Amino acid sequence: MAEAHQAVAFQFTVTPEGIDLQLSHQALSEIYLSGVRSWKKRIIRIKNNVISGVYPASPSSWLFVVIAILATMYTRSDPSMGLIAKIQEHLPVSQMSTQCQAVVSAVLFSTMLWLMLIFTMRLCLKQLLSYHRWMFEQHGKMSTTTKIWVALVRIFSGRKPLLYSYQGSLPNLPVPAIKDTVKRYLESVRPLMNDAEYKRMTNLATEFESSLGNRLQWYLKLKSLWASNYVSDWWEEYVYLRGRGPIMVNSNYYGMDFLYVTPTPIQAARAGNCIHAFFLYRRKLNKEELKPWLLRSAVPCCSYQFERMFDSCRIPGTLTDTVQHWQDSDYIVVYHRGRYFRLRVYQAGRLLSPREIEFQIQRILDDTTPPSQGEAKLGALTAGDRISWAKARAKFFSSGVNKRSLDCIERAAFFVTLDDEEHSMMGEDSAECLDRYAKSLLHGKCYDRWFDKSFSVVYYKNGKSGINAEHSWADAPVVAHVWEYTLAVDSFQLGYNEEGHCKGEVDSSLPRPQKLSWEITPECEEQISQSLAVAQALADDVDFHVFSFRDFGKGKIKKCRVSPDGFIQMALQLAYYRNRGTFCLTYEASMTRLFREGRTETVRSCTNESSAFVQALEGGEPADVCRRLFRAASEKHQHLYRMAMTGGGIDRHLFCLYVVSKYLGVDSPFLNEVLSEPWRLSTSQTPVQQVELFDMVNHSEYISCGGGFGPVADDGYGVSYMFLGENIINLHISCKHSCPETDAHKFGGQIRKALHDLLKLLSPNLKESNKTDEGRPEVKKDK
Fold this sequence. Notes:
With 783 residues, this protein is an alpha+beta fold. An 8-stranded mixed sheet has the order 15-9-8-12-13-14-3-20, with helices on both faces. A 6-stranded mixed sheet has the order 16-22-21-19-17-18.
């Protein structure tokens, strides 16, 4: 146990001559350097807090204001209109000379003036960012008002903003009017109901609007004045943290590696580069060097979800879970063949190089130590029911060695699994390989991931990788941001040598990764087995189909003068109608990060316009009629998407009204029915955010395949899609085997056909080709 001795700073022995104290200089040096590193980070945080606190001004602007005021005083003019003299009269220090008192008074006045200017600029920027008409203007055409607005936003935005610089200037999410929400809701459910059902729902809505709705609305408006966001805290608590079912499949989601290439076939090397890249990203995050996400290069989005990316874990509770966040863990926890290892990634205050991390990972892979009793499938507790896990945690992991080892996992920067399986586009049946790859990332073996961690990274035996993320702390675009960065840095900056190993040298004196110890009782093992049985049944029920649609992409769609997202949504409506013979309530995720602490809103993609188009196309109406109806449906979808982004959505408003009603102990038949409606088609687009990191024209194969999630309804589908460059669309489709009416592969076939039919309808003269488009490079599959 050499690694255990190296972790001890001193040893002592009691002898007849007294106490023999032996200091470990290596350990003391490590403690000293860790302390220096910690204080450097604290200083950086203080500096960044100051810079963000005075934004859009800068700390140096204070000196400019002070010098300007002092200069005007020496010209015998008083810019303060007597305030400097008033301050001088009330200074508590009477021993100063008159001239010194005047200077101090001028500095105090300058500081107050500077703070007032900052407040005014921030208030102006907040008001400017509340303007959203620019989003509803036709693409490529900007009104004079919007041009002036953009110029003012750039003037008041300051220079070189940090990641969190805009947080204090973002507007609060507005509370929509009750009548607007009710009207939009009734419009959204019209194609899903017959006349009698719609009349009944209209009566319920009218009664709610005229009575209870106004009372609940008053409480929401009160909360919106007090809280930064009237939705986000309740959304996190009631939608995510209070869910008592398994979070595996039902809540967690995944992201895939490159589809057609694997940078290295060596598992340890891939892990070495990527883990190093993750910590480079965390360093940028801590220093706030990541650029704020700007729409149209001018409009900032909220960045608060980045705060809990690393060093975070979901903690189970009997009534509700919590999300715990710690500061800057210097290690990760690695799972391999039933064992958990603590791997330090900092040595003597420096981040280990990729080659050194590879060396440490290889040590874990070569370790033949068997798992402790009950250790191998311990992770199944995080995959089962939350109440069972909370009780087991309190009973078996609240003290002793189990508590120390569990604390180690929960406080780690993130979790890593070294998987013995191989996944990629292998063999002739590449589609089936992708399906298995997706299921592995979503749930694995149900015990070889730690589903409570903010995110877990999986490295397969052949060098492929993937990520599984817990949903409560942030939404998919935030996880996709760090994943894009990691893949780009791994392949394009760090790279590998000719043998496929990480570049650099190895310090062979590095302490070995420390295997965590456990004392699992038979009673605890029984609970692990029960949780595994629940999780395994859920995992086995998931039907997944992932495919890369290469016949055309958003390039040809845009030539039809149609929004690519609207095109996909109409294709999904057409495919679902052909698959089930009816329409369903459709969920498309939209972000509300234009507002402070904004997360998501729902776009109800099944509309009167979309259903009219689908029925016309399936009913054999003339092509020109179908094209007109399609464009009306697409424009309606885009309008709803923009409304959702700008605070005009309906579902989060209805959700919060429902929460208030429960707090007040009042029952609303209207809200009960609205909140119980199943989302049988849940969809989400995964955009490529950091386009500058990739060459999507010449190297489109070096782009993540996107990610996916499990079905929201037992009898429904989950569909995630991603546009890669101009010519590829990746789709991830999920449903459940237990429902005889759903089939992921069949639905995928319907989506393919719908995509072809829509392009044929919109551009009859535009040839589709199954071959590689001109200007797009051929890509080779993994072998």
